[in-house]
């Protein structure tokens, strides 16, 4: 028998199956965290990819804008490495008064002062000026050009008028743009709302009524229209330097990536694929997936990342069991509210009129549920919401297994277990 612990909220559930039935346990590669954060940052800045060392790109008195992700990307842990970056800039002749942190809010709301402190740390907040790029403040944005796909690029004046721009962020798999990080700090990060809308609509199928684009998916860059449009807009700005982080499954720094905003980022994508892309031998009848426990399964919105990955491992006539405790299943309201549109075409119509990422995730969730039955192991009080969203709710793993067996109707079904489904991506050879 194979006994596999699966995290569920702050507890652990045990999955037990005969070894011959378990095709694979999908886990990312173990990687040691960066032992010395300051040294890791220095190496990225001094031995970059595709660019000279950052010191050679700057001169004393340059006005430097550092694009930083907002609180929704708190996993990047700016508070731990921003002081190292600021110290290096000081050493290169750039004083704190010439450095501005530009918060890449994208289409999100503004931060509170307390959220600045939480996201960037007390030292950085006290040392340098902070400006927020709020997408709906149209006067703050400058027209940069129009992409080959017709997206009109308006970028924040603070970064456009800076002498040098340093683009920071974190790289991970992304269900729409293939990979996060890099150019996404520019769009949606420091773009006007209309630019974000025009670009993100490439995630939808080019034919109205057909839902989501089949080429806007996790791990895919070539032929992904959203990504390719993002790259054209980023080229209009052409940041001087990129500093992105890659984290371990436990949230520690695995590597700092530095250099050219495209070439270094592409290197980072390859590292992510090596760490979290797991070769899949064959698909299974049943996939049991944990997002990785709390906070990754605090709500359904976060948990859908595990759904995306599990779908890559299950047969078309199979079943998925999701282990998502969801202590706040309805958060954020921008996501849960979309399930008020029970009809997917209605959901799509509203999304085309006013695109939001939570709305897209809700639309994709609906189409995924049409494709494969999904049994959601969650808190009993989440039952009504789960049914409304289209899931089959269960209060325990044993109950979910009985439901799955009733759907599959075969005693010798095969199984794949995904204990860290929020991070690991099965890649079928």
TrEMBL record:
Which residue numbers delimit the Lactate racemase C-terminal domain? 282-328
Residue ranges of every copy of the LarA-like N-terminal domain listed in the record: 8-208
* Pfam families, sorted: Lar_N, LarA_C
Transmembrane spans: none
Could you name the domain of life of the organism this protein comes from? Bacteria
Query: Which Gene Ontology terms cover its molecular function?
Result: lactate racemase activity
Give the protein name, as stated in the record: Uncharacterized protein
Organism, by scientific name, is Acetonema longum DSM 6540
- Taxonomic classification: Bacteria, Bacillati, Bacillota, Negativicutes, Acetonemataceae
